[in-house]
Design brief:
The chain has 305 residues and is mainly alpha-helical. 60% of the residues lie in helices and 6% in strands. The chain has 16 helices and four strands. It has helices at residues 2-15, 20-33, 37-49, 52-68, 72-84, 91-102, 106-117, 122-128, 137-151, 158-161, 177-182, 196-205, 216-232, 244-254, 261-275, 300-303; strands at residues 174-175, 188-193, 236-241, 278-280. It has a four-stranded mixed beta sheet with strand order 1-2-3-4, sandwiched between helices. Helix 1 packs antiparallel against helix 2 (20-33), helix 2 packs antiparallel against helix 3 (37-49) and helix 6 (91-102) runs antiparallel to helix 7. The two termini are 30 Å apart. Bound molecules: zinc ion. Zinc ion binds at residues 288, 290, 292, 299-300.
């Protein structure tokens, strides 16, 4: 399966030259996952030589691969190269900061979050402040910076103080996709979703649940759009991953149908209690909510309209 995925991605490089950088990031992530770090570094190295934002992001990924392999000096060399060629775009700096925070190096993470923060425009900083700021990209960077600074015991600075924490999670109300589409939204919403692996099963086995003509790609892109619309209206969203066979069993036991709103609501409550929910939006570097196995920043985050 993974070998197929590597081959598919290599094929896509010729087929979609405009998406070369995105594909190389996916390809190198896949290779690194399989332990083929030398090949991953070769692909990223080619991208890095091209410079620009993609080149800098490639160096950050190379640093991540080196850190994961215990090669600290090599990792630090790649990060030093990013610093040596300043760019106006915050992305590479934010990406490095998230990686370093993930590694537990808060001191370095704060340095990199700050390098990202100074690159946001005044409009982006404005968008991050206030009650609805939490849904913005700049907020996610500034908030992570604030958390890392708190862990280091630093006093809040102006950026820290300007952030309004995300609304407390309110999960007593469950939304169907129809609710979401019609915008009858409370402050907090649970939204049911099917991952890639469950979508086809649900479409095949759960009569009336998913239109037969809808592809997973369409479903996923539309859901991402709906979630962004909800977030833009200040609604905190959590996703509840549904499983087709489990949902049908649940409906059978309850003596109802999977399309019955009350059954669906009760089933999602059950899932949320047993297996928890998925936060949305995910961090840029965490695996995408859709179940693709690809980082969110290179999956649905780039796909929505
Ligand atoms: Zn995705």
């Amino acid at each position: 399966m993974n070998l197929d995925r590597v081959a598919t991605l290599v094929g896509e490089l010729d087929e979609f030259p405009d998406s070369r950088a995105e594909i190389i990031f996916d390809l190198s992530a896949e290779l690194a996952r399989e332990g083929r770090t030398t090949e991953a570094l070769q692909w990223l190295g080619r991208l890095a030589e091209g410079g620009g934002v993609d080149g800098a992001l490639a160096r950050v990924e190379m640093a991540a691969v080196h850190y994961q392999s215990g090669r600290v000096a090599e990792a630090e060399t790649e990060l030093a190269r990013v610093v040596a060629t300043p760019l106006a775009d915050p992305s590479p700096y934010a990406s490095a900061a998230e990686m370093l925070a993930g590694l537990g190096d808060d001191r370095a993470a704060v340095r990199w979050f700050t390098m990202a923060a100074v690159r946001f425009t005044a409009d982006q900083i404005d968008a991050a402040s206030g009650e609805d700021g939490w849904a913005s990209w700049a907020f996610s960077v500034l908030w992570q910076r604030r958390e890392a600074r708190e862990r280091l015991g630093l006093r809040p600075d102006d950026w820290d103080a300007g952030l309004v924490p995300p609304p407390a999670l309110r999960s007593d109300r469950l939304l169907s996709l129809d609710d979401v589409a019609s915008m009858r939204v409370p402050d907090g919403a649970r939204v049911m979703f099917w991952t890639l692996s469950e979508f086809a099963t649900a479409q095949r086995d759960l009569s009336g649940m998913i239109d037969q003509s809808v592809s997973f790609e369409t479903y996923r892109d539309e859901l991402e759009d709906q979630l962004r619309t909800l977030a833009a209206r200040g609604t905190k969203v959590t996703l509840v991953p549904a499983r087709a066979a489990e949902m049908r069993d649940y409906a059978d036991r309850a003596g109802g149908s999977v399309t019955d709103e009350a059954i669906r609501r009760a089933y999602l409550d059950d899932v949320a209690q047993r297996t928890g929910t998925v936060a949305w939006p995910p961090g840029r570097n965490t695996p995408c909510w859709c179940g693709s196995g690809v980082k969110y920043k290179r999956c649905c985050r780039t796909r929505g309209r």
